[in-house]
Specification:
Helix content is 39%, strand content 17%. It is built from nine helices and seven strands, in the order H-H-H-H-E-E-H-H-E-E-E-E-H-H-E-H. It has a five-stranded mixed β-sheet. A two-stranded antiparallel sheet has the order 1-2. A hairpin with an 8-residue loop joins strand 3 and strand 4.
């Protein structure tokens, strides 16, 4: 084990030692992204968009020093991968997320309704095998966002899905119009998509065949089926 220094509790206790490394702000979310398959710096950052690149660099270095993450040269690019120790952490992180979904009060303020995180998560949770042949471009119109940040695009093909914060230059096939909070509630399973559509909280604009197929393309978040023990306020 390499030497490393993080602020400590002064206790030689396994839980204290673990929290010295893992309880720093953003660290568990960085590990979440690595566990979900992100390996390039920019992809990790897309999952923690409110974290500064400088701070992300620092957290990755700490995780390298503690041998939870390794830095690998792949051709001309650098990738970050979980070591055996990092992989062994994933069940604990998943359990913590399940506990949070079950027991913590689900209040959703405007600042927590981050559509960029939802769209980033959505792009890796699409049933790509159910998409039409060729390219399908879905434009999301977030009516509560400032005009400059109101539109996002998913460029979908059976080989994969890309997220674009700027117009990709393709004609869009389907518009999904909603507000950020509704998108979050649906994605985490607190508001059924069918209900959001029936109530007009999400509106689909485009050919009927694509509107009808859209719900089948979404797998929702991994925690969507975890029941809450406390009510989700605001749904």
């Amino acid at each position: 084990m390499h030497d490393y220094h993080v602020p400590g509790y002064g206790q030689y206790c396994p839980l204290a030692l673990a929290t010295e490394v893992l309880a720093e702000r953003w660290t568990l979310l960085v590990l979440r992204e690595l566990g979900l398959g992100a390996c390039r710096f920019n992809d990790i950052h897309r999952g923690v968009p409110r974290m500064s690149p400088t701070l992300l660099t620092g957290r990755l270095r700490t995780l390298e020093r503690t041998e939870i993450v390794e830095r690998v040269q792949v051709g001309r690019r650098i990738e970050y991968r979980l070591t055996a120790a990092g992989q062994a952490l994933m069940p604990a992180i998943e359990s913590l997320a399940v506990w949070s979904k079950s027991w913590l009060p689900a209040t959703l303020s405007d600042e927590r309704a981050d559509p960029d995180l939802i769209l980033w998560d959505m792009h890796r949770r699409m049933h790509t095998e159910l998409l039409p042949d060729g390219r399908t471009v879905i434009r999301f119109v977030l009516v509560d966002q400032p005009e400059a940040r109101r539109r996002r695009w998913l460029v979908c093909e059976r080989s994969g899905v890309d997220v674009c914060v700027n117009d990709p230059g393709f004609e869009h096939d389907l518009d999904v119009e909603s507000d950020s909070k509704t998108l979050v509630w649906v994605w985490y399973g607190d508001l059924p998509l069918a209900r959001a559509l029936d109530e007009g909280r999400i509106e689909l604009h485009g050919p009927a065949v694509l509107r009808d197929a859209f719900p089948s393309w979404l797998q929702l978040n991994l925690l969507a089926e975890v029941p809450r023990r406390r009510a989700a306020f605001g749904v």
